């Protein structure tokens, strides 16, 4: 019964996604979903329209055979070529591959195609608020993955394996307490990682390509971040670690960091060379203009030399 409800829900979402005008779908949260407009992601474009709707609505039952789209006829392929500019749904594989997973994406554990359960638009997979308790298998070309407000507890080493185009992962508001050490390490294009509002105790190894990290409101504590965890991230410009009971500022900070948010932690002190270089007074850390240390037991007045190289004083207790 649960399966059937999901199937119907999935169909409604899929059909709605296909019939609604594309810009409307994408703009429902323009601030975070802007990335989907990246027009360089032109996949094997399957026209949004009659052919697809028929293919999907023709299914009378939840049988797997019927969920797998039939191979395209020559006529349909011609149509595809004519409508190259229409944004297509994610196709989990190219037609050359023998393992044809089709427009609905790979099958989940419950033998259910990911793109019926979630909504796939171009290279973006939206699985927000779908009662998921694990990461669903994702289409090979997924670049942006949103799975916020679910019940995912663990991220496994294979969840994102071989997703070489993946650029953004957003798992805000799940129940994640455990992440396999190499779950993210081998993702060559990962830029943005958002894991805020979970129960993470230990941060795994992260790819150095990251530009934006938000792990706020987790349980990292004193030991959750490894030594020099962010050192080699030359492009990292936002590091948000608020509400984690951290005991110290993670060092060294990468040179291009612009924003460091550490409010509501348990940071008691810092060194004079946390940000600056006390031996070299000509050194300027010009990128770092947004440091938040409010909500920590630290007394910023104790280290007056520590801010000399910064464009702005950190926000926090100066008395
Ligand atoms: C001091 O810092 C400046 C600017 O980063 C650098 O050019 C210079 O080489 C440094 N001097 C020494 C002695 O490290
Ligand atoms: C903070 O440090 C300054 C300088 O050491 C000191 O004068 C001040 O009393 C301290 N404030 C608190 C609340 O401990």
TrEMBL record:
Task: Please give the biological process terms from Gene Ontology that the record holds.
Answer: articular cartilage development; bone development; sensory perception of sound
Q: What name is this protein filed under?
A: Epiphycan
Fetch the SUPFAM superfamilies from UniProt: L domain-like
Protein family membership: Belongs to the small leucine-rich proteoglycan (SLRP) family. SLRP class III subfamily.
Which compartments does it reside in?
Secreted, Extracellular space, Extracellular matrix
Q: Locate the compositionally biased regions of type Acidic residues.
A: 75-85
GO CC annotation terms, alphabetical: extracellular matrix; extracellular space
Q: Supply the source organism for this entry.
A: Cavia porcellus
Q: Which residues form the signal peptide?
A: 1-19
Q: Where is the LRRNT domain?
A: 114-144
- Please state the protein's primary subcellular location: secreted
InterPro entries referenced in this protein's UniProt entry, alphabetically: Leu-rich_rpt, Leu-rich_rpt_typical-subtyp, LRR_dom_sf, LRRNT, Mimecan/Epiphycan/Opticin
Q: Which gene codes for it? A: EPYC
Keywords noted in UniProt: Disulfide bond, Extracellular matrix, Glycoprotein, Leucine-rich repeat, Repeat, Secreted, Signal
State the residue spans of region: Disordered: 60-97
């Amino acid at each position: 019964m649960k399966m059937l409800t999901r199937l119907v829900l999935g169909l409604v979402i899929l059909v709605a996604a296909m019939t609604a005008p594309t810009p409307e779908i994408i703009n429902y949260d323009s601030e975070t979903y802007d990335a989907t407009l990246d027009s360089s992601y032109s996949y094997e474009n399957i026209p949004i329209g009659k052919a697809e709707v028929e293919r999907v609505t023709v299914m009378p039952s939840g049988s797997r055979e019927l969920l797998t789209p039939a191979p395209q006829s020559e006529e349909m392929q011609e149509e595809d070529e004519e409508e190259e500019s229409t944004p297509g749904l994610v196709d989990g594989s190219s037609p050359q591959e023998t393992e044809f997973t089709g427009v609905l994406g790979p099958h989940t554990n419950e033998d259910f195609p990911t793109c019926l359960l979630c909504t796939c638009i171009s290279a973006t997979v939206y699985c927000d608020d779908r009662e998921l308790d694990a990461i669903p298998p994702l289409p090979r070309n997924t670049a942006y993955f949103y799975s916020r407000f679910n019940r995912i507890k663990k991220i496994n080493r294979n969840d994102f394996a071989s997703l070489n185009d993946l650029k953004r992962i957003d798992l805000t508001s799940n129940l994640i307490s455990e992440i396999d050490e190499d779950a993210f390490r081998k993702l060559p294009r990962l830029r943005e990682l958002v894991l805020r509002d979970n129960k993470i105790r230990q941060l795994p190894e992260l790819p150095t390509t990251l530009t934006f990290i938000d792990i706020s409101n987790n349980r990292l504590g004193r030991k959750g971040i490894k030594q020099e965890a962010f050192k080699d991230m030359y492009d990292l410009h936002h590091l948000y670690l608020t509400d984690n009971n951290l005991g110290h500022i993670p060092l060294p900070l990468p040179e291009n960091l612009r924003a460091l948010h550490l409010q509501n932690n348990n940071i008691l002190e810092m060194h004079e060379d946390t940000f600056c270089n006390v031996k070299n007074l000509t050194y300027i850390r010009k990128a770092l203009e947004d440091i938040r240390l409010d909500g920590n037991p630290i007394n910023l007045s104790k280290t007056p030399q520590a801010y000399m190289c910064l464009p702005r004083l950190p926000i926090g207790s100066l008395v």
